[in-house]
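Example record

Each entry pairs one chain with its bound ligand, adenosine-5'-diphosphate.
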Amino acid sequence: MTKRIFRSILTVTLTVLVASLVLIVGVLHGYFQDRVLEELARSTAYIARGVEENGMAYLNDDLPKSSRITWVASDGTVLYDNWEDEASMGNHADREEVQEALMLGRGSASRYSDTLSQKTVYYALRLSDGSVLRTSDTNYSVWMMVLQALQPVALMMVLAFCLALWLAGRVARQLVEPINAIDPSAPSEDVYEELSPLLTKIRSQNRQIQRQLLDLQQRREEFTAITENMSEGLLVIDQETRILSYNSAALRLLGAKAPVEEGESVLTLDREAGFRRCVEEALAGRRCEELLERDDDCRRVMANPVEQEGKLAGAVLIVLDVTEKEQRDRLRREFTANVSHELKTPLTSILGTAEILENGMVKPGDVAHFAGNIHREAQRLIGLVNDIIKLSRLDEGGPAAQWESVDLYGQARSILDQLSTAAEKKQVTMTLSGTSACVRGVPQIVEEILYNLCDNAVAYNRPGGTVSVTVEDTAEGARVTVADSGIGIPPEAQNRVFERFYRVDKSHPSGGTGLGLSIVKHGAAYLGAQVTLHSEPGKGSTFVLQFPKYVP
Ligand code: ADP
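Structure tokens for the complex follow.
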């Protein structure tokens, strides 16, 4: 803008300058011509008087040769000329000034010479005898005047040009400065009056933009608040896989670091092939779902293409943590397979024995033995079914029994009594020590937990071994410790013994259903207690059951 104003001012100034120059030259030229003509009229009148009085004799006198004097007879014949030989000069009757003088008594004319550089001004006066006396003088043409004054004119022009340059620059800057100083976000009032409508418009648009920005910010905050409270991960990407929007759950689930840099590709968040496939499929316009498994984590990624005005604009990715669901599904599958297997084994045994009995292939003396087999397997089956029922009850939120105060010491005493025959059989000594400690819980579940722990301590013991049960009422809450001097559990199996149907040694003669410690684990969780295991193979195992603090 400054340049434009500068150029405009300069052009105007130069145009005015040149026009003024032309005008001045024209006016001056006219003025000088008038002066020359006046001078000529005066000198012609003077010479004419001399000629009237003295005739040709006056002209022969030493008149100044600076002006040309021509005396022309009334028929146009040149009688005298002080510059040229009159005999060689043609008839002058056709000369404009002569004709005018003959008619009006005086006449004037001006003519350019061939070169156009000089102009001759003529003045003619009719004498009393009808002849015409003419004087002439040369005058510079406009061109010549300009050429003559070229040096000072050029100097003047250069000076004027420089002045115009300086002034144009200064004026342009002064004009533009207040406009440049306008703050578009808050334009002030006192600039140019002509800019007022524009500034008013800017102000109103600023207000509108401000309102829209606030609105946008509010919406963004709402969106962020919603997405940040989602446990599902959400990612919005453009066609070049650049992340446009995300929530922290997405980064957490993908195991990526926050914050995401601007323009970062979503593929840097997770390098798994399944994730990349999902993104590529969505950006190709197809919906895609993938299960990503890493260590113990399981995430499901769902990618949907996003279209804008019929064109693919990017994709939306939802990341779900399905670890628990997948684990549950896996456990259910394993459980079903295990249950089927565990049920099938005793049933097959019962079926086989029953068939032998039915076919009369058993001697009467052996019938009791075979019937005993059937009885044992059936008992095992019932035990298994009971354990499954207990577990599924716990899975579904526990039995519909009332919670009440349970004395752990009393419970432990009754369980040791129940197991005394089995312990005797295994030559295992059981002891109970400690004090009475009350917990709040479901007696049936407390009993099942303690029974399973003590039963295992006897079952996986060695002849002559010991089982010591200690009940304490500590500051943290009631605690039961069941320690045995049995076969122990190898370190790698210590975590797994709480899994359903897991048995360290499937051929162990005391082997149960493999559900006992699962019932312990789920029962303890149901009561808010914690089970910990310390075991050393060959030395024995200690199970600690820590209940929460309870004040009856
Ligand atoms: P089971 O019915 O086979 O006893 P549990 O779930 O009670 O099933 O125990 C799972 C496995 O853990 C057992 O098969 C056994 O190998 C091991 N186990 C449990 N308690 C003890 C213990 N006190 N000493 C040694 N091994 C044990």
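The chain has four domains: 2-147, 230-321, 326-391, 402-546.
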